[in-house]
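Weekly modeling sync, notes
Attendees: S.R. (lead), two postdocs, one rotation student

Agenda item 3: backlog of single-chain predictions. S.R. asked that every request posted to the team notebook include the full sequence so nobody has to chase files. The rotation student volunteered to paste the first one in as an example of the format we agreed on. Action items at the bottom.

Example entry:
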Amino acid sequence: MKSKIAFTLLGVCFAFNVASAQDCNVTLSLFNESAKVNNFSDAYPKYKQLLENCSDANILIYQRGEKMLEGMIDDAETKERKMELVQEYIDNQMMRLEKFPQKTKKGDVYSDIAMIKYKNEVGTLEDRLKAFEDVTEADKANFASPVAIYAYFRIANELNDAGKRDIQFLFDKYDEVIDLIETQENEKAAEARPLIEKQEAQEELTSRESRILKNSEIYLRNYTKIKGSVNSLLGSKADCDNLIPLYNKDFDEKKSDVKWLRNANARLSAKDCTEDPLFFKVSEALHKMEPSANSAYSLGQLAEAEGDRAKALKYLNEAAELAKDKSRKSRIYYRIANNYKAQGSYSQARSYYRRALDNKPSMGVAYLKIAEMYAKSANNCGTSVFEKRAVYWLAADYAKRAGRVDPSLSSTVSATVESYQGRAPQKSDIFQEDAAGKKISFSNCWIGESVTVPNL
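Predicted structure, as returned to the notebook:
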């Protein structure tokens, strides 16, 4: 008898759960349809029912809820109602993170919350700044929204303009924001790099690969725009005319302060304020107290200015070995490559440009430099006039890569590619040589690569 009762109760519970799940699915479907067409008056009550009865049923509740609440905030007629909806939006994002942590990135959630506070002027400027700082503390690697990164720096700039934060604070935020942008640029460029090479090898991309490449290139263009906007905001505040008096004033007092010397050295170096005696004083003091990538790099810059390339390369290689940050390491390798290029040591230069790209795949200018060296070597490669001119196809390919990983170079790249392609064999030459689709190797010179002749 007892077993029959237990079985009956189990059946009742199972039936109840099935019915409840069905109710949740029906409500979710109706909510989704209404929210999709911005019928908020119908969608909102169903959204509230879902939160109360089916909060862990489907991530779509929070995805669609986010868009619905954004629309309702924009449409709110009173400040009070707008603030209520902003809080509901924040709650929605935090509940999504709680209920579906495996499908949700903390960086996205905290970035969304910071942006909704920024757009609706929630709290003071300091409160809004803190919301963005929370993103970097919670999940810096996934702080990826170009618009949010720009908003973060804009708040810092407004605080400086209002006299509430000093110029060093703004410099620190600038460095942080540029690092965020370059980290994301590198990730997107690294995604795009093998796909670009696959295209150049005339291999067809899958639909998924095409989508990844397209998205990566869109993000890279957006990061380029945001970086330009951030630099415009900083403007003349970081010019040598402002930096040198700022650091000169404090040098005697701070010359034993390693942290201060490190910051001053990095800022002066980044802005090429290297001709003033202050730069030498700061660099020398820092290198004595704490030999580092920055101090070695600065001494390399000074040796370059004095025309001593051997000494410059010694310090720059030391700097590259000491550097831990990949972005910093790439800039050092790029400078070393430029030194070798200036000496005509193209193979050595290419080796260092490639090291720079390994550390920073979005450094398009390195591809342009390799392309330039290839073009200058055309007469020394190949065994016929046709093969020598074919080097320009390879140079054009490298120049194209530059524009794809760094859209800020697009105008330069277009002109460069057009120039190289104009010097490469034309259709009539390809026809005459019967060379369409053939591979030409440049193993007889330092280039050591090959190129496929375009099909007619």
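Discussion: group reviewed the output briefly. Confidence is low (pLDDT under 50) at residues 5-19.
Action items: rotation student to repeat for the remaining queue; S.R. to check formatting next week.
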